[in-house]
């Protein structure tokens, strides 16, 4: 096998036709050239998934389309679908994308929400607050290792950006049987207060105090 070529793959659909299993003994380098749309392979993400018995093994849901028999959903696809459901106020769709033990932290709120019920309740209130014309606009979705992803976004009203609504969401996903689900969400929202250099000045004062009085700083 030459550098840049794709090694052999073992691909099959399960009996329920809801997922496919992809296995390879080698690192995937480039996507196969078939008529089927391999969104996950095109983005080169297969090599980031767990290795089982010396093989890359991934079971992912797929969406049927008129262009192909099935389409692999990558992490980016899951995140894009998640925000599309929020924009459509589709609570059932959101519920299908998150796990039963989903954990949500929004740093604008105290505490952490645990479980699908509380998480769905949060997004239900969010979509109600958005009214009829507010939408999330996704900038980029970045995929990391171990099924983690990050999306930056802002809110728009009738396609016009709303000031001070930029944010970033961190997602941790997990593979549960045949499905790739969102298990953890952390939301960071832009602050309307812009202290600028004051923050750096305060940090400098604080660290100087710690350095001058280390024993006091180390007291618990």
Write structural notes for this entry.
- Helix content is 27%, strand content 33%.
- Strands 5, 6, 7, 8, 9, 10 and 11 form a 7-stranded mixed sheet that branches. The protein has a 4-stranded antiparallel sheet with strand order 1-2-4-3, with no helix packed on it.
- It is α+β, with helices and mostly antiparallel strands.
- The chain contains 6 helices and 11 strands.
- The longest helix is centred in the C-terminal third of the chain and has 16 residues, at 197-212.
- The chain is globular.
Compact overview of the structure:
With 220 residues, the chain is an alpha+beta fold. It has helices spanning 39-42, 75-87, 91-97, 116-129, 197-212, 214-218; strands at 10-13, 19-24, 51-52, 55-61, 98-106, 113-114, 134-143, 148-157, 160-161, 167-176, 179-189.
What structural keywords apply?
7-stranded mixed beta sheet; 220 residues; alpha+beta; 6 helices; disordered N terminus; 4-stranded antiparallel beta sheet
Write down the oligomeric state: single chain
Shape: globular
Question: Gyration radius, to the nearest Å?
Answer: 22 Å
* Fraction of residues in helix: 25-40%
What is the string of helix and strand elements?
A: EEHEEHHEEHEEEEEHH
Topology (elements, then pairings):
Layout: E1 10-13, E2 19-24, H1 39-42, E3 51-52, E4 55-61, H2 75-87, H3 91-97, E5 98-106, E6 113-114, H4 116-129, E7 134-143, E8 148-157, E9 160-161, E10 167-176, E11 179-189, H5 197-212, H6 214-218
Parallel strand pairs: 5-11
Antiparallel strand pairs: 1-2, 2-4, 3-4, 5-6, 7-8, 8-9, 8-10, 10-11
Helix pairs in contact: 2-3
């Amino acid at each position: 096998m030459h550098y840049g070529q794709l090694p052999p793959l073992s691909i099959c659909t399960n009996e329920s036709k809801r997922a496919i299993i992809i296995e390879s003994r080698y690192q995937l380098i480039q996507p196969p050239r078939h008529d089927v749309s391999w969104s996950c392979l095109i983005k080169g993400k297969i090599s980031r998934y767990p290795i089982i018995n010396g093989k890359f093994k991934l079971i992912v849901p797929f969406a049927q389309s008129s262009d192909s028999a099935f389409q692999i959903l990558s992490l980016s696809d899951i995140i894009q679908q998640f925000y599309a459901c929020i924009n459509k106020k589709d609570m059932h769709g959101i519920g299908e994308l998150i796990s039963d033990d989903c954990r949500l932290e929004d740093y604008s709120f105290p505490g952490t929400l645990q479980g699908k019920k509380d998480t769905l309740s949060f997004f239900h209130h969010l979509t109600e607050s958005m009214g009829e014309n507010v939408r999330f606009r996704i900038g980029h979705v970045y995929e990391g290792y171990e099924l983690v992803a990050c999306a930056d976004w802002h809110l728009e009203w009738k396609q016009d950006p709303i000031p001070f609504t930029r944010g970033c969401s961190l997602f941790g996903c997990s593979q549960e049987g045949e499905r790739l689900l969102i298990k953890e969400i952390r939301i960071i929202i832009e602050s309307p207060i812009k202290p600028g250099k004051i923050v750096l000045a305060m940090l400098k004062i604080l660290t100087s105090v710690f350095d001058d009085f280390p024993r006091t700083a180390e007291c618990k």
